[in-house]
Amino acid sequence: MQTLHVDLGERSYPIYIGSGLLGRADLLTPHIVGRQVAIVTNETVAPLYLSQLEAALQGYELTSVVLPDGEAFKNWETLQLIFDGLLGARHDRRTTVVALGGGVIGDMAGFAAACYQRGVNFIQIPTTLLSQVDSSVGGKTGINHPLGKNMVGAFYQPQAVLIDTSTLNTLPARELSAGLAEVIKYGLICDEPFLAWLEGHMQALLDLDSQALTAAIARSCAAKARVVSADERESGIRATLNLGHTFGHAIETEQGYGVWLHGEAVAAGTVMALEMSHRLGWISASERDRAVRLFLAAGLPVVPPAEMSANDFLQHMAVDKKVLDGQLRLVLLRQLGEAVVTADFAPEILNATLNADYAAQLERLVN
Amino acid sequence: MQTLHVDLGERSYPIYIGSGLLGRADLLTPHIVGRQVAIVTNETVAPLYLSQLEAALQGYELTSVVLPDGEAFKNWETLQLIFDGLLGARHDRRTTVVALGGGVIGDMAGFAAACYQRGVNFIQIPTTLLSQVDSSVGGKTGINHPLGKNMVGAFYQPQAVLIDTSTLNTLPARELSAGLAEVIKYGLICDEPFLAWLEGHMQALLDLDSQALTAAIARSCAAKARVVSADERESGIRATLNLGHTFGHAIETEQGYGVWLHGEAVAAGTVMALEMSHRLGWISASERDRAVRLFLAAGLPVVPPAEMSANDFLQHMAVDKKVLDGQLRLVLLRQLGEAVVTADFAPEILNATLNADYAAQLERLVN
């Protein structure tokens, strides 16, 4: 087991990473203050892991809330089911909410913990690669609104994050790939040597080699913890974690939540950010192609939906949370391993990026 | 104009109190960071004061969201209308949300500000006595759940509170009385000399004498600011502000939100807390009666609904936010001017309090 620390003063917390941690009561109980625990999970994860977690928490007054599975349910109606479950079982403000599932469960359970009686304790147990390396760390919680993703939420830090790599054994291959999109992202924004490591270990990761997984997750979480510690509420550097996300969110929103997986949209969105960084003269064509190849090796899409026009993108991007005083800001790469947030680009470069022929580029790359 | 300060470190803010402040752009603009402002108000307040406020804010990109009026609408569906308005007009995270209205508007607009894009700036302009002396100060925001009042919300401090006493000229008499319930509360919990002042000035307050109003509001806000500064997140002394509220919330919930005004329920609930404090031997019958007379003089109910049984009360009180690890805690009076939060009472005393004949007591008092 590896233990990392997210350093946020009085809101600091540990991240435990290893195989078989789910049943480890000794890791959970130090982070539970009262006698009530509410586990929030979904219909897919519950049959696989809920009983194991419930066993580890026996002795507590336990309520389990099982939600429908998927990004399409990351909305108020589903959130309300958590409040119904907590109030129905008379959970008080010393309750601890435990999220058992992927990013959607973590975001919703975390937001519910932030709002229930104006805030109760919260533990993250992410069970997908994407949530293990990204959403479970850093305290971003929330739900979607029909007009925009994650538009309603809170910054709310957990008491602890417990990452059991053995939960990845039951993860569909498509979701494993989606998680790798965020892993690759850390290399691109702040850890160039990690890209070479990933090029060498991509097959091991896809084969669920537990040593490779633990190494990749720990390196990703460490990168995220560094950034979050420096900028908890995203007034600056934290926004670089959103490389590819502004383009990616537009894809997700346009296609309807859940049609593209978040990581898939981030992969295609990052390819667009790479393209734009190249058109700005910041990275070379071969650096761009190196990154695109890594996404391809991870089994990820590198071409945005053919039917999406430049205008479709612009419309969704106008409500991005990085828009300030009407000005669109994008995360781009100064070089591989160095991301910047900038509004300083000519509109023609953005337009050319939105209109680029990514399918043809892919064609060239694989032939 | 009087200016008070709520001292909360980097979340400190001023409270401006005086007549005719609503049009004072010079008080508002220092607290607005971006170029977008969203005013949240309701159908009753909008025709009276919205255009005046909009005029003071001309030059900003302005969106006004007008909600239906009443506690019955303090729910997610109505909150959603705020998010719809903000997203529809593409408000970004440098938006400032301004609450123009009573406690329901302040609580909902504040919660919307806390959640919109994970938190935007917020200014309170309370237009009822109740919200001016209570809910606009201290950062409690939220909405009701069918199973309990204010069960979903956030601690979220405004950038400033602007109290224009002239808005009370259009306040219905019943709501003025409801506000006086919270004013009297401050005397009872922490300012015994204020009770004598109120006994001497009750008629002036009911007559909307602006000097008396300003004095009473400033003294109430100062009391609240002291308590909130000492305990922002209600881990201790702040709970004393809820004198009468546990009994009162039970009345509100049982009767259906909005049937009893919040201040009316607090008055009757406080009479129950006085009764219980008396039965515990902490205050005398004449001290209890002195406080009851003050509520009567303010035009407030001092008898809980005849049809509510002890069991009705207990059922609602079991989900009170002051319940910890299953133990009900109540705010009671050690003496007039000194409140305590305690779980240390015999169940029989609570039962006797719930079964006391308040109607007969009132009969004795007025004859």
UniProtKB/TrEMBL annotation, chains A, B:
A Pfam family the protein falls into: DHQ_synthase
For this protein, what is any one GO molecular function term?
nucleotide binding
CDD domains from the xrefs? DHQS
Tell me its EC number(s), please. 4.2.3.4
Which key words are in the record? Amino-acid biosynthesis, Aromatic amino acid biosynthesis, Cobalt, Cytoplasm, Lyase, Metal-binding, NAD, Nucleotide-binding, Zinc
One Gene Ontology CC term in the entry: cytoplasm
Per the entry, the cofactor note is: Binds 1 divalent metal cation per subunit. Can use either Co(2+) or Zn(2+).
**Which top-level group of life is the source organism from?**
Bacteria
Name the pathway it acts in: Metabolic intermediate biosynthesis; chorismate biosynthesis; chorismate from D-erythrose 4-phosphate and phosphoenolpyruvate: step 2/7
Domain named 3-dehydroquinate synthase C-terminal: which ranges? 179-323
Amino-acid positions noted as binding Zn(2+) in the UniProt annotation, renumbered to this chain: E182, H245, H262
GO biological process, alphabetically ordered: amino acid biosynthetic process; aromatic amino acid family biosynthetic process; chorismate biosynthetic process
Location relative to the cell: Cytoplasm
- Cross-referenced InterPro entries, in alphabetical order? Dehydroquinate_synthase, DHQ_synth_AroB, DHQ_synth_fam, DHQS/DOIS_N, DHQS_C
Every 3-dehydroquinate synthase N-terminal domain range: 65-177
- Cofactor field: Co(2+); Zn(2+); NAD(+)
| Chief location bin | cytoplasm
**Catalysed reactions listed for this entry:** 7-phospho-2-dehydro-3-deoxy-D-arabino-heptonate = 3-dehydroquinate + phosphate
Binding sites annotated in the UniProt record for NAD(+): 69-74, 103-107, 127-128, 140, 149, 167-170
Protein family (similarity comment): Belongs to the sugar phosphate cyclases superfamily. Dehydroquinate synthase family.
Question: Its biological function?
Answer: Catalyzes the conversion of 3-deoxy-D-arabino-heptulosonate 7-phosphate (DAHP) to dehydroquinate (DHQ).
Q: What is this protein called?
A: 3-dehydroquinate synthase
Recall the taxonomic lineage recorded for the source organism: Bacteria, Pseudomonadati, Pseudomonadota, Gammaproteobacteria, Pseudomonadales
Gene assigned in the entry: aroB
